[in-house]
Amino acid sequence: MNITEKIIAKAAGKKEVQAGEIIQVNVDLAMTHDGTSPPTIQTFKKIAEKTGQKRVWNPKKIVIVYDHNIPPNNIGAAEFQKITREFAKEQKIENIFKHGEGICHQVLPEKGFIKPGTVIIGADSHTCTYGAFGAFATGMGATDMAMIFATGKTWLRVPESMKIEVEGRFQENVTAKDLILHIIGKLGVDGATYKSIEFTGETIKGLSVPERMTICNMTVEMGAKNGIIEPNKATIEYLKKRLPNGKFKIYTPDPNHDYHEEFYFNIDDLEPQIACPNSVDNVKDAKSVLGTHIDEAFLGSCTNGRFKDLKMAAEILKDEKIHEDVRMIIVPASSEIYLKALKKGLIKIFIDAGAIVCNPGCGPCLGAHMGVLGPGEVCISTSNRNFQGRMGDPKSKVYLANPIIVAQSAIKGEISIPE
């Protein structure tokens, strides 16, 4: 079996599972946020009415994070958060982060909720981020999540396996974001539909924790059920510092596992990449769209809002000024990252350059608040999606790039690469 199959088999209480098999698994951790909690709660209450079970299966295994509209930007968002607070109090769910701690996919690893070898289900499509830590993590809708709240179980079709091997070294101005954009550009938005992607190769083995999170975060943009990477030394050290008892089991693939599909990439010659409107797989070398006017530059999201990302941008923005036609919005992925950036002087660099630094959260990524695009406006963003209307008006356009390109473009007022 591969890593994913071994984790699923353990969760199902079976010695072995095969691709295509439909099974029931025990869930180790369930996560919802301020946008998906109320519909989950509503469905849970319907289940309670029919079954008489009025308590969640295990309040200690449920985590709720306010991140999509924090602080609430309208009456509806405020009501959603009120409903969620009351439910958490009623159900004695203590793991609720409601004071701007950050984006769920950053907060959960930071707070020690993510363990290798576990099954994690989140009511958010980018739950696959946790595969960076060797966990099976995937997103589901509110109905499925309500059943998990009630029973602690869910059903899965064991996904077919895909191995992506990466070799080579990153060149200047090229990052893990460029790698995953390149892969998506080659395989397409439906190239891995309901498959389990296992990343391997010398390049992957050497990636830092933030880089691994960026890679796994965007696997869903290929339609994947999950992305997963076997933990390296850096990942193990990160986990030991944050897990309560520091104990976990790492699963590795059997050497004779026959993957359904295998792909090989060498990044020695990879250039900075950009996903152009309005599809994540519309990927081109950044040099082919140089000079494209922008109105907004966004640095943040669960893809690239970590300290390493902020540091890369700060190195570009130091002693520079953001172009007069551009608003640059910077949103750290968590309060922990925000405080570190403050301590290291990054926030001062951003403000001196003319950027708007907002509280931790999802911010402009989903077009909710803190940077909504108007008709005809163009944004270059470190986020993960550039669908039509994703960040605001349907006539706006979004380009996806790494933090270096976003920062340099903010200075120039057009898509640009540092010389």
TrEMBL record:
Record Pfam families: Aconitase
For this protein, the Enzyme Commission number is 4.2.1.33
Q: Which reaction does it catalyse?
A: (2R,3S)-3-isopropylmalate = (2S)-2-isopropylmalate
User: In the record's cofactor note, how is the cofactor described as bound?
Assistant: Binds 1 [4Fe-4S] cluster per subunit.
Q: Which keywords has UniProt assigned to this entry?
A: 4Fe-4S, Amino-acid biosynthesis, Branched-chain amino acid biosynthesis, Iron, Iron-sulfur, Leucine biosynthesis, Lyase, Metal-binding
Give the main EC class. Answer: lyase
Which top-rank group of organisms is this from? Archaea
Query: InterPro entries annotated for this entry?
Result: Acnase/IPM_dHydase_lsu_aba_1/3 (IPR015931), Acoase/IPM_deHydtase_lsu_aba (IPR001030), Aconitase_4Fe-4S_BS (IPR018136), Aconitase_4Fe-4S_dom (IPR036008), HAcnase/IPMdehydase_lsu_prok (IPR011826), Homoacnase/IPMdehydase_lsu (IPR006251), IPM_dehydratase_rel_enz (IPR050067), IPMI_cat (IPR033941)
Which pathway does UniProt place it in?
Amino-acid biosynthesis; L-leucine biosynthesis; L-leucine from 3-methyl-2-oxobutanoate: step 2/4
Which residues of the sequence carry a binding annotation for [4Fe-4S] cluster? 302, 362, 365
Cofactors: [4Fe-4S] cluster
Give the family, as the similarity comment puts it: Belongs to the aconitase/IPM isomerase family. LeuC type 2 subfamily.
Q: How does it assemble?
A: Heterodimer of LeuC and LeuD.
Q: What does this protein do?
A: Catalyzes the isomerization between 2-isopropylmalate and 3-isopropylmalate, via the formation of 2-isopropylmaleate.
Q: What is this protein called?
A: 3-isopropylmalate dehydratase large subunit
Which species is the source of this protein? Methanothermobacter tenebrarum
